[in-house]
Amino acid sequence: MSNQPSSERYVIPNLRNACRILKQLGRHPDGLKVADLARELKVPVTTTLRIMATLHLEGLVRKVDGGRYELGSVLIQLGNAALAGTEIREQALPVLQRLTAATDETSHLAIPCDEQALIVAVQDSPHPLRASSRPGFLAELHCSSTGKIFLSYLYQDRLPALFATGRPTRRVPATLTTLSGLKREIELTRKRGFSLDDEEFNLGVRCLAAPVFSSDGTVVAAIGITASTVRFTKERIPEMAAKVRAAAGELSHQMGHAGHHP
Fold first, then answer.
1. CATH fold of 6-72
2. pLDDT tens, position by position, for the chain (262 residues)?
């Protein structure tokens, strides 16, 4: 009798490799060659080539200059369909609208995805100059405000894994890339109930986020705002934090959470 877990017994290896390839392409906006994918995922080149041919035929990837492959347009349609069916996104939209009205800045909702923060909804500010990411964007945990929420409340035990293959990416001079610095950031985030991206992802942009809790007290999402540092000055952090935490608390209540944030 096999000791293999039931979920693993029914896995189709090359279908799983196709999924891994799509995820890998999602991390490389400039695309990758078949040889690069084969090497990074440790899949034979001939197998990778056959998988890519199939994905290309179905419109899930597209070939660009230099023999590189990028994610295909069919995934946009699939992604929009997935987002449209996300219950928390639908519940969050009115909350985001009110938060943007209260702060006059762009607000957004993110959920954890593959140990990153996936932006699933954005409510734009009325300002012509906006710095927010769009739905579908995956932000790294260590340098984004929503990512720091998930790092602090969901993945704090996995923090050492971020350093297993080297330090996290330093996007700008202020990006936190040391284990000790991120540990302090986690403690501060949990203590005050909100996270801050203080020009750590993009220069001239400040972001603040707060956790959204489910009925069992698990963090299932994060609500944040993104604004130019010219408008969102450091002096406004307490004011913005109160408004973002109130919005996150409202959505948490809708998700069945009762009581105060841990």
1. Arc Repressor Mutant, subunit A (1.10.10)
2. 445 555 677 888 999 999 999 999 988 888 999 999 999 999 999 999 999 999 999 989 999 988 899 998 788 767 765 665 467 888 999 999 999 999 999 999 999 887 788 888 999 988 776 666 788 788 889 999 999 999 999 988 888 877 777 778 888 888 898 889 999 999 999 999 999 999 999 999 999 999 999 888 999 999 999 999 999 999 999 999 999 999 999 999 998 888 654 4
Which residues are within 8 A (CB) of 170 and not within 5 positions of it... i.e. 6 or more apart?
177
Sign (positive/negative) of CA torsion 213, 219, 220, 222? positive
* Angle formed at CA 6 by CA 4 and CA 12, multiple of 5 degrees: 85
For CATH 3.30.450.40, the residue range(s) in the chain are: 83-254
Amino acid of residue 251: L
What angle do helix axes 13-26 and 45-57 make, rounded to 10 degrees? 80
**Segments of the chain assigned to CATH 1.10.10.10:** 6-72
φ, ψ dihedrals at 149, nearest 5°: -60, -45
Q: Which CATH code for domain 83-254?
A: 3.30.450.40
User: Which pTM was predicted?
Assistant: 0.71
Is 193 in contact with 169 (CB distance < 8 Å)?
A: no
